[in-house]
Each structure stands twice: as structure tokens, then as C-alpha cells.
Amino acid sequence: MNFILIAVAVLGGIALVSAVVLYVCSKKFAVYEDPRLGQVTALLPGANCGGCGYPGCSGMASALVKGADAGSLDGLYCPVGGAEVMGQVADLLGMAVANTEPKVAVVRCNGTCELRPRIAEYSGLRTCTAMNSCGAGETGCGYGCLGCGDCVSACSFGAIKINDETGLPEVDEDKCTACGACVNSCPRHIIELRKRGVKNRRVYVRCVNKDKGAAAMKACKAACIGCGKCEKECNFGAITIQGNLSYIDPDKCRLCRKCVEVCPTHAIVAINFPAPKAKPVVSDVEKDDVELKQEEVKA
């Protein structure tokens, strides 16, 4: 019986000492966590897409709290939550957040199967990264889309799919959050985040081929040839030619679409604009009447 009491006493003493040690350690090495971190994290969408430039929503929450302590939230923006979520975060932190114009992913390649025929067959690992590391891919264009769908796999919102007929990725504007995952996944950098624009209207060059005109056209009939006609036509200085490739600055573009009309290869596209009105057909009889009236007025 004495042995049992001694064992119980020893175990009780060990437990008491351990509890005291744990208590002291918890106080000594306690890490303070700002309660605002949990509150901000709860407001964020929880997509953990990395579109904000930080490792997940917890990383973004930490950056927002630190920014608030520093007195500015400039440069911090959640593309998935958008202005509504950022407004809620700013209210919670007692800060003002800068208005950021919403963006959308655009595919800067128009090299469809018809315009950019295959000249080779690839039989390796079916990913854009693997195919790109092996060379130009299955077509003669070493700049265009490879069509394996790395961007589709990277998108957490189901906003991109590969069109079976064209072989090119298409972005669903209603689902796109501009997180940038597709941009980072493309080894040829043909996907770009651009401002959605007024009424979702955008004008941009759907090509990234930097070869000279003849070589670019040989690889793809819809390639930009760097002729400079669009640059000369633009009255706002929005277009520049660099490396045989034209680029339209969305901050300067006024959506006049004059560049679209003069592009000889139709490499410049205008998205979400109303269809142009059909010009009325004037018969020869009507033309003669008009000319007769003009002569009468002159007389």
C-alpha cells in the first residue's frame, strides 16, 4: 500500500512540476498575435491564389495590418475580392484605400489552327512548360500559344478554357478575377492583365511575335509585322513599336479604334464594341439623282 501511495505522490509531483514549467514557458515565450490579423483574414475571400503578390490570404492580411500601422495601404489590393472587400478591410483598419481599376486577363495570341498550321508533332509531356523547353512547339511560331492548357490548370476559378476549334485559350470575363495565376503559368508570356476599360471595352495587339515582318508572317498570317501604321495613326501616343512588335498602352488608349482599321494583318483587336453600322447601299439611279441635284445647285 505504501508503494502505491509513494507512486501516486511521485506522479503528482512530476505533474505539478511539469505544469509549472509549461506555464512559465507559455508566458516566457508567448508570441503576440494582433487580433486584427484574424479579422482581416476573415474578410478576404480565402482563394489563396497569390494574385495580390503575397503567399495566400494570411500573407495579404499580415501585409495589410503592417501597412495600416505604417499609415498607408498603397500597393495592396486583393484582385479576387475587388473594391468591395478592400473597402471593408479599409474600414476595419481605419484607413483609406486607393481606387484600383479592375483588370481582366487577355490572351495576346491570335494564331489559330487555320492561321498558324502545324509543321511538327510533339509527343512528350503535354504541358506548355515542357513543350516550350523543347523548342518552338508544333508550329513555326516560337512566340505563340502552345495550347496545352497550363493556364487552364492554374486558374482556380474556371475562367479559362481551350477552344477546340482554334486551339487557343479563351477567358470568361465574368469569372476572371485578375489574380494573375494564368499569367505566371504561361511560359511564353502571352497572357496579360489589362484594364477592363469603359463598358469592358479594350483595344490591344493580339500578338507577341518579335520576328521581322516576313518571318512573322511566314509563321502566322495574323502576326504583327511591326509596320508602324498603327503608331502613325494614333493621335494619343498610345502605341509604340519595340522589337518589331507594336504595343498599346491601356493608360493612353482612348479606344478610337483607328489602329484596328489600318492594321494590315488584323493583329489589333477591339473587344466588346458594338458592331459597326452597315452603310446604306446606294443604287446607280440614286447616285445619278444626287449628282443631278448637285449640278442644279451649282448652276
From TrEMBL:
One of its GO terms (cellular component) is plasma membrane. [4Fe-4S] cluster 1 binds at C49, C52, C57, C78. It is found in: Cell membrane. It holds the Pfam family FeS. Binds 3 [4Fe-4S] clusters. Residues 145-165, 167-196, 215-243, 244-273 form the 4Fe-4S ferredoxin-type domain. Residues 32-95 form the 4Fe-4S domain. Its main location: membrane. Belongs to the 4Fe4S bacterial-type ferredoxin family. RnfB subfamily. This is Ion-translocating oxidoreductase complex subunit B. The gene is rnfB.
